[in-house]
């Protein structure tokens, strides 16, 4: 462990106060204005949130996975747009460089990513390439000691503010599959790289996604992550194994928050001469939510500990992401239900969190992709064992 248990407990306590005193009160403002206020971004930097997972030698906190998910449980009690603002630097926008980058690439980008002075984005998805991530159509053709990138990346979180993109592009045009894909660290402002308008979304206002367009974008071969062609898909999958645990932890944090909200409302709200918290049908929704959130928390912690112990956790990360995000969706729905008519009204947060939570079941791999990963791995393991 990078932190002793007292220091981790203190960090979590500080973040709990930050969430309760700063983030939750700002949710309505963020949702209405579709922007995170500068004062909050500054506080996030001061708290070290951008560098939670970056190695200490590059200015980060160097948290292991168990510590990182513990922090995510706390911070994710606030509306997910806040987490989204710094989480690409902790996860998918930074890990490609941190896991597979060359020493020069790490030295160049990790300090800025850890401090939050550079925002990192992960550019895998394309208009025609979503779940089938190995089918990347964006190309990077070798031209002397440069590559020329062409293609469009879609739904790229934090693209409008990114300083560096981890871009998956095909370097081997002879294969359509995953083995022909390479990863590049491409800086914003490189000629030929442009960012589209932020999309209007169902929820998570304040978190921005946009297209990233490459038109004859010329990058030096030193931008090839790890310096080896054909490794980009594997880099992306390693990044996503970790990212999925983080989304699972975010789902747990938001679940806990909504359980607090539903209980607070149920205790306060009176019908038929009683607080509705006294009615067993309402209690059933509270109890089911607690059991869902508790199970999800246990899964996330177990998978995180296994990862810290050096195990391959692709299956466990997918199980945790699938269960925790689906559980969060159920809890978001019950939260609206317990709030009754008020649950459908913007003034109460249940409506917003219901919309916000929906994305957890889609990004960083849909529930159906997690099912595929889990089943494929188990079937392959069985075949190997019996030798067929
Ligand atoms: N870690 C390291 N390597 C991995 C890996 C992982 N978690 N998962 C797969 N690989 C490797 C495989 O071992 C294989 O290597 P070899 O060719 O050397 O055997 C290679 O990558 C291709 O793997 P596979 O054949 O399983 O790839 P598929 O094309 O079948 O794709 C899925 C697998 C569907 C799981 C993948 O495309 C995926 O995760 N899709 C969802 C993408 C996603 O989450 N998008 C969200 C947007 S990003 S925010």
What are the key terms here?
388 residues, alpha+beta, four-stranded antiparallel sheet, three-stranded mixed sheet, 14% strand, globular, binds coenzyme a persulfide
Biggest sheet descriptor: 4 strands, antiparallel
Indicate the structural class.
alpha+beta
Beta-strand residue percentage: 5-15%
Using DSSP, what is the number of strands?
Answer: 9
List the uncertain runs. none
Bound molecules: coenzyme a persulfide
Radius of gyration: 21 Å
- In DSSP terms (H or I, runs of 4 or more residues), the helix count works out at 11
* Strand order in the sheet with the most strands: 2-3-7-6
Portion in helices:
40-55%
End-to-end separation: 41 Å
Shape: globular
Q: Overall mean pLDDT score?
A: 97
Order of SSEs: HHHHHHEEEEEEEHEEHHHH
Write a brief caption for the model.
The protein has 388 residues and is of the alpha+beta class. The protein contains eleven helices and nine strands.
Provide an overview of this structure:
52% of the residues lie in helices and 14% in strands. The model has no long low-confidence stretch (mean pLDDT 97). By secondary structure, the protein is of the alpha+beta class. The chain is globular, with a radius of gyration of 21 Å. It has a four-stranded antiparallel beta sheet with strand order 2-3-7-6, with no helix packed on it. It starts with a helix and ends with a helix. α7 (232-268) runs antiparallel to α8. The site of coenzyme a persulfide has 23 residues, from α7 and α11.
Write the layout of secondary structure elements.
Blueprint: H1 5-33, H2 38-46, H3 65-75, H4 80-90, H5 95-100, H6 103-115, E1 120-123, E2 139-143, E3 146-157, E4 164-170, E5 181-187, E6 193-195, E7 209-220, H7 232-268, E8 270-271, E9 274-275, H8 280-308, H9 314-339, H10 349-357, H11 367-386
Parallel strand pairs: 1-4
Antiparallel strand pairs: 2-3, 3-7, 4-5, 6-7, 8-9
Helix pairs in contact: 1-3, 3-7, 3-8, 7-8, 7-9, 8-9, 9-10, 9-11
Bound molecules: coenzyme a persulfide.
Coenzyme a persulfide (COS) is lined by residues 92, 122, 124-125, 131-134, 178-179, 233-234, 237-238, 240-241, 314, 363-365, 369, 372-373.
């Amino acid at each position: 462990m990078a932190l002793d248990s007292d220091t981790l407990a203190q960090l979590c306590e500080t973040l709990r106060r930050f969430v309760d005193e700063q983030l939750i009160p700002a949710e309505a403002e963020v949702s209405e204005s579709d922007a995170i206020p500068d004062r909050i971004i500054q506080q996030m930097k001061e708290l070290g949130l951008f560098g939670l997972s970056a190695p200490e030698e590059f200015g980060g906190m160097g948290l292991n996975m168990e510590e990182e998910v513990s922090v995510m449980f706390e911070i994710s009690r606030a509306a997910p747009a806040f987490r989204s603002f710094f989480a690409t630097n902790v996860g998918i926008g930074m890990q490609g460089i941190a896991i597979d980058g060359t020493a020069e690439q790490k030295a160049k980008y990790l300090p800025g990513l850890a401090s939050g002075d550079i925002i990192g984005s992960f550019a895998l998805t394309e208009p025609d390439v979503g779940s089938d991530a190995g089918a990347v159509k964006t190309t990077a053709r070798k031209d002397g000691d440069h590559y020329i990138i062409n293609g469009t990346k879609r739904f790229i979180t934090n693209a409008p503010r990114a300083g560096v993109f981890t871009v998956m592009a095909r370097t081997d045009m002879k294969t359509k599959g995953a083995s022909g894909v390479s990863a590049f660290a491409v800086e914003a402002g490189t000629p030929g790289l442009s960012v589209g308008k932020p999309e209007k979304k169902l929820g998570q206002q304040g978190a921005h996604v946009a297209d990233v367009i490459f038109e004859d974008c010329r990058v030096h071969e030193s931008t090839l992550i790890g310096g080896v062609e054909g490794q980009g898909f594997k880099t992306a999958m390693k990044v996503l194994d970790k990212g999925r645990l983080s989304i699972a932890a975010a789902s747990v944090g938001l679940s806990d928050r909504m359980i607090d909200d539903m209980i607070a409302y149920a205790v306060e709200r009176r019908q038929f001469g009683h607080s509705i918290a006294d009615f067993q049908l309402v209690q059933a929704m509270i109890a089911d939510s607690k059991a869902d959130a508790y199970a999800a928390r246990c899964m996330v912690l177990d998978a995180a500990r296994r990862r810290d112990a050096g195990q391959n956790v692709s299956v466990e990360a997918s199980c945790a992401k699938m269960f925790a995000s689906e559980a969060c969706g159920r809890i978001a729905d019950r939260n609206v239900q317990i709030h009754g008519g008020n649950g459908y009204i913007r003034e109460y947060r249940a409506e917003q969190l219901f919309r916000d939570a929906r994305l957890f079941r889609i990004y960083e791999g849909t529930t159906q992709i997690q099912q595929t990963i889990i089943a494929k791995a188990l079937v392959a393991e069985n075949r190997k064992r019996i030798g067929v």
